[in-house]
Amino acid sequence: MPVSLYIEQIINGLIAGSMYALIGGGIALVYGVTRVLNMAHGEFYMLGGYGVFYLVVAHAVPPVAAIPLVALLLFALGVIVQRLTIHYLLPREGWAFACIAATLGLSIAFQNLALVTFGEDYKAVPYYVDGVLRLGDVRLPLQRALMLAVAVITLLAMAFILKKTRFGWALRAAAQDADAASVCGIPVGRVHMITFGLSAALGAIAAAMLAPIYSVSPWMGLPVLFKGFVVVILGGLGSFPGAIVGGFLLGIVEAIGVQLTSAEWRDAIGFAVMILVVWLRPWGLFGKPQ
Question: Cα(112)–Cα(213) distance, rounded to whole angstroms?
């Protein structure tokens, strides 16, 4: 088998991994700061896909304007969801299970709302860019190169926000000890709201970039949620850098595994890697033993 074919598969794995990193990073961000497992994250992703479809296809909005607008809308939705549900559950006894139950209920509600509003038909979004990038014997569609570029830029922007801004410092303080952060004057409730918004926006950006590859439907969120949890477990629960590394690792392993076997084994390979990591290192690649 030509070496160029393996190189293409590794590049495709990096591209898929960048999408996994966006999705898993959103889940890890919320869990790392609030300790809430957001079961509705897949539906933020699904709503992002519909947002892009209706802006780009139905209203002919250029993707360069539609994608940031969808991310902004999902950011607002994430903030509203956190403020109306999680905000009131966190101070209560048994909040962890209550938050899982609430977000699971929201997931079902959003999915059924999409089914009633948009119908069960699959919606197709055209490629944002056409053409093929050639590097020697390696061929890469420009659409996939764009996906990788957008993901890398988004993750770098998130790293800058978390490391270099006052909000990032407040977020990390709230993640380490919310009570101590509150005593120091940090508005922990506002940090939690913005964190939820950022998480939803990351899911929307991933949906916007994947919509031309996969169709948009009311059921598109659940498989992505499972894959996001695999990434978060690989990287270590609550670790944003771990989720990024876990996403890229999963994408590359899946791509090489599919090349050696067949596409039907993709999910099995991903879950096998997760089981292996949990067996050897239960706290994940970047987590710490409890």
Answer: 23
Alpha-carbon gap, residue 254 to 216, rounded angstroms: 23
User: Could you tell me the sign of the dihedral formed by the alpha carbons of 196, 202, 204, 210, in that order?
Assistant: negative
Question: Strand, coil or helix: what is 287?
Answer: coil
**What's the predicted TM-score (pTM) here?**
0.92
Residue 127, burial from CB neighbour count under 10 angstroms (0-12, 13-18, 19+)? middle
CB 70 within 8 A of CB 56: no
Name the region of 217 (left: φ>0; alpha: ψ -120 to 50; beta: rest).
beta
What distance in Å separates the CA atoms of residue 116 and residue 248, rounded to the nearest whole number?
35
Cα-based angle 7, 11, 12 (whole degrees, multiple of 5): 115
Extract the tokens encoding 129: 């860019």
pLDDT tens sequence across 186-243? 999 999 999 999 999 999 999 999 999 888 999 999 888 988 998 998 888 878 899 9
Q: How many residues does the chain have?
A: 290
DSSP classification of residue 236: -
Nearest CA to 64 out of 129, 1, 138, 132 is that of 129
Token code pair at residue 61: 């909005």
